[in-house]
Each structure stands twice: as C-alpha cells, then as structure tokens.
Write a structure and sequence with these properties.
The chain has helices at 32-40, 59-62, 98-107, 125-136, 145-148; strands at residues 14-15, 75-76. The chain is mainly alpha-helical and 158 residues long.
Length: 158
C-alpha cells in the first residue's frame, strides 16, 4: 500500500526495493540518480538550447533532484493495472514470474547497493497464492473496436 495505491495503483514515485542488478543494463544500474543526471545534462531537454519552452514551463526539470542516498537504485513504481500481462518484471526484467515477485517482496533482500525500503513480510503459502490471484484480477482484456458500437450516444450525436 505504500507504493501501489490510488486509482492507478502507483504512487508515481521512485523507490529502492532491493531488485537485483541487471546484466542487461551493465555495471552501473543506479536508478533515478543516473536518470535525472542524464535528463538534466541533455541538450534536447526542456531547458536545452534546442527548446522553444520558457524556463518557467520546465518546472519538473528545474526542480528534479539528482543527488541523495534515497535516489540510489530507486526506480519508478509502475501501475499494477494489467500486471499479469507484463512479465518479466522489474525495471529490466530481472524477475520472471508474479510468484517470484511476491517472493522478492516477502523476503526483502538487501539491495546490490543503496538501501532497500522493503521490510520482510511473513506470508504463508496460502497468502502468497491469494495475493497472486488478486494481482491477476487487475488485468482486463484489451478494448476492441466492437465496444464503440455498443455506446449509447446523445440524440445530438446520432
């Protein structure tokens, strides 16, 4: 509930949850701290020489924090909507199944570097199965063109 909350089931913040480093990303896999430095240093950003924006239109960029221990290995919380359809999981696909994600969060392993925010939670086999079943209920079939024909339009739109 700390990270996956609200209507979209995400707080849209960044957290270090002890996810193993990815061999796909390379030796440096430091999360938000590197990402913010990359964005703020890019000449094509909102404040860059190629931008037509006024500085006051770039508030998110001007106030982005790039330093601090809480940003090390912090990755953005994704929505849980359709989570069962998006394997593999984590920022670089380090965890293959929902069951393995639940194991990760329940055991709260140490982070490769930085400090993980996770606290160990004891879940029985039944509770793990129930949690996975719940996560699977957050998926829905994709919308199809056929749905539009079932809409009732106001008289002025007919």
């Amino acid at each position: 509930m700390n990270c996956h909350n609200g209507a979209r089931l995400t707080d849209d913040h960044f957290h270090n949850t002890g996810v193993p480093a990815s061999s796909l990303v390379g030796a440096i896999d430091s999360g938000r701290s590197t990402g913010v430095r990359d964005v703020t240093g890019n000449e094509f950003n909102c404040l860059g020489k190629f931008s037509d924006a006024k500085p006051e239109q770039c508030g998110e960029l001007r106030f982005a924090v790039s330093e601090g221990p809480e940003l090390l290995r912090a990755f953005k919380t994704p929505s849980l909507r359709n989570v069962a359809e998006r394997a593999p999981y984590m920022h670089a696909g380090q965890i293959a199944t929902l069951s393995a994600v639940i194991d990760h969060y329940a055991t709260a392993p140490k982070s490769p570097f930085g400090t993980s925010e996770l606290k160990r939670v004891r879940l029985s086999a039944t509770e793990r199965a129930q949690l996975e079943a719940f996560l699977r209920t957050l998926s829905s079939p994709p919308a199809t063109d056929g749905l539009a024909s079932n809409l009732i339009l106001p008289r002025s739109s007919r």
